[in-house]
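Cross-check.
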Amino acid sequence: VGMFKASYYQQKGFTWLVDPQKPLAGDVLNCLANTKRGWKRRYLKKPVLCYRRHQKNISYQLHKRIQSLVYVMDYIVKEFDESVYFPHIKWKELEENQRQSLKYFSIGKTFWRMAR
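Predicted model, tokenized:
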């Protein structure tokens, strides 16, 4: 997940997404939005920044962390085709009612695994 400076967005004229109802997960939300916008991304095998952890980080507040995960999952399901987040399933071979059933079953399994 990328971490972005708001000033970069302002300088380039990009919109920094913030949901006033759910201000959590700003970096993740914007990383997903940037992916949808077509921004190029790369995987790096080493750290490129230092993340300072402190008591106010969301990582230490389990209830906020769970809210953030649920919000991000909802965003992914709403904004991306299921073939993006479940690429191993042969979606085109299924009828619409089968697609919907398998999609929601797979999402439920993902939430269950996260909760364990």
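The chain has two domains: 1-80, 83-116. DSSP finds five helices and no strands in the chain. Passed to J.P. for a second look.
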